[in-house]
């Protein structure tokens, strides 16, 4: 039984949230429509300042080149968490000044901003420069006329450092290429001498001759048309009869054979053999000579020859 009151309370809370969101959307749309209908447009005017350009001997116009100023406004999401969204961007001029035109949905009925906005400086790679916080809040500065609103930041100038917020000029590597040869200034061109134009003489007055009137043509001489004579009567001749004979067919003769003489036999040319290579020169091998025998020594005695002994038959027992 306790579940039904909780479900009713949840449905009631959900309906209230939906109604509040619809009312906020209707109010925002009415504000933007009123700003567009009235033709009021607003712009943010300000300037920046380089802190270390004089110490590093960097020209201010080179430090400002490529830097952008972004106007970010506070938006609340569905979870009631605030975050900032970029509404407009613009580049800096060579003097470090900027003029950013705000969209119509930021301007309210009383020429105030509908939400909190601030100006943030971006480097040449479109990343926010460090040490830039929402402290540079945009405030209404002046109202020149009924159709233009001018806003400015709370601080006079937005400071930045060239080491942390690099421009297009500082992104390149120094001394990466050799110095280019500086061409001398060209000599001034000689002053051209223009001759006065000759005054044209007036054209001669034309001599008008009277146009000759054409003489009247001679009166034509009409000859009487001759009366045509009647045509002569035609003469018809009887055609001669030519008899038709049946054709006589003859048996055709056989074709005469064509005589083709045999070609004469020709002995093929003899083959020319290449010359024989030269015979190798015979070199006689040296005769093999035995080494000399060692000298005879007397300590080897000469053994006499003993012939084998004859077998003696043993006496029978």
UniProtKB/TrEMBL annotation:
Biased composition (Pro residues): 192-233
Organism from which the protein derives: Dioscorea cayennensis subsp. rotundata (White Guinea yam)
UniProt signal peptide: 1-30
Coiled-coil features, chain-numbered ranges: none
One family name in Pfam for this protein: Pollen_Ole_e_1
PANTHER family in the record: OS10G0148100 PROTEIN, OS10G0149400 PROTEIN
Protein name per the record: Proline-rich protein 4-like
Keywords: Signal
Lineage: Eukaryota, Viridiplantae, Streptophyta, Embryophyta, Tracheophyta
Region (Disordered) location: 192-236, 284-317
